[in-house]
Amino acid sequence: MADKMWAGRFSKEVDKTVNAFNSSIAFDGRMYRHDIHGSMAHAQMLGDCGIISKEDSEKLIEGLKGILADIDSGALEFDMTAEDIHMFIEAELTKRLGDVGKRLHTSRSRNDQVALDIRLYLRDEIKEVSALVLKLGETLCDMALEHLDTVMPGYTHLQRAQPITFGHHLMAYAQMLVRDLGRLKDTAGRMNYCPLGSGALAGTTYPINRKQTAELLGFTAPVANSLDGVSDRDFCVELNCALSILMTHLSRFSEEIIMWCSWEFKFIDLDDAYATGSSIMPQKKNPDITELIRGKTGRVNGDLMTLLSMLKGLPLAYNKDMQEDKEAIFDAVDNVKLCLETFIPMIRTMKVNKDKMRNAAAGGFINATDCADYLVKKGMPFRDAYKITGRLVAQCIDTGMTLETLPIEEYRKMSELFGEDVYRAISLETCVGERKSEGGPAPESVMKQIELTRKQLEAYHE
After folding, report:
1. Fewest beta carbons within 10 Å, which of 134, 196, 288, 298?
2. Which candidate in 73, 157, 437, 461 is catalytic?
3. Is 461 a catalytic residue?
4. Strand runs (DSSP E) across 238-296, as ranges?
């Protein structure tokens, strides 16, 4: 069993059960690169400030590089009896360098060390998540361009409401993703402050240079308050919140895909590579990916509640409760990445059944608003036009007709303003094509949305 760095105060070994309960290396081991990079910056600062000799500083940096290379290559495996990744690396460094290795922790606490590591780790993870969100947004733009004229019903209350296009529908989700990217970027900006040098909670008496370590590690500046530096996990909560919103968007899209590929809709068909079958029903083709995304949304939301509940009663500064931050935020990040990595190719390869979409749009009287607007454009107040159109729809339902097939004589019984041109006004192509207002479903309007969204996405490219 690895020796505890803090063992001097204690007269007996920690109980094995307590040691296992207390240990975090099983999940914080993934931060080894960030821990080592943080330690290298710290060692350089110690040498430059004369707190340790330049020779020792250089030996520490070279020793840390060697440990990093050995972990990366598999030559060095984690000691799972170590309390955490920080202690494992420091113990290994001391084993290799002797007393020089013991100098690394000068003017530093595990409290500011772990606060640094998780910021460095999540900063990298935000880049990876953002790249996937960006890829999905670009995929939706490409698909929307292919479906500028693919008419489908738009829904409210899950009832057919007004005709739109599939391209228009896709661009709604693309805009959600643009906002998701903005939230991720804002989170990264607010977390990009260096806690190293905060010590356990009250800084240090050594003449350290916090600005130097912040600059070496690519931070905007040091954290302004040492208590805040070690006890803040706002950035974990904020990131998890951004991820929960992102997952909500994926979940809503997934719910629609689940409906659309059912026999009741059949608007789309998923590629066989992104669906599964049944163990007993040979006809089944199940949208399992989208169902899992719906389920994992609850899991990511649960991680958010874990973080909020963990922090809500903690006095300043560091408390061991905060060890629970990593499993929650790591789980949230891992699942979001997994969902995006499978969702993108699933969307890209699905088949869109244009005829099914158009046939659905042709039913349900979704051109009724356009019929009312026809009367308004001829001078009738909207509320009167609304009432007349409602009567026409009721008549069609009673007689088994549609607004397109209702004879002009029936229209004229309701109002003399109706003419033969009403049929053009209520055609699906007109209903969609005339909605040229900014953000609307007309092909030219959707084209502008695609151009705008591409520019917005471009701003997030590295």
Report:
1. 298
2. 157
3. no
4. 268-269
Residues 212-230 have a mean pLDDT of 98
For domain 111-206+220-360, the CATH class is mainly alpha
Name which of 393, 387, 307, 290 is nearest 345 in CA terms. 290
Q: Which two tokens stand for residue 221?
A: 């500046």
CATH number for the domain running over 7-106: 1.10.275.10
- Is there a contact between 140 and 78 (Cβ–Cβ < 8 Å)? no
Q: Are 260 and 252 in contact (CB under 8 A)?
A: no
* Nearby residues of 37 by Cβ (< 8 Å), 6 or more positions away: 120, 217
Give the start-to-end residue ranges of the domains of the chain: 7-106, 111-206+220-360, 361-458
Q: Among 53, 262, 278, 309, which one carries the catalytic annotation?
A: 278
> What are the DSSP calls for 179-228, one per residue?
HHHHHHHHHHHHH-EE-TT-TTTT--SS---HHHHHHHTT-SEE-S-HHH
* pLDDT higher than threshold 60 for residue 6: no
Write the CATH number of the domain with boundaries 361-458: 1.10.40.30
**Residue 37 bears catalytic tag:** no
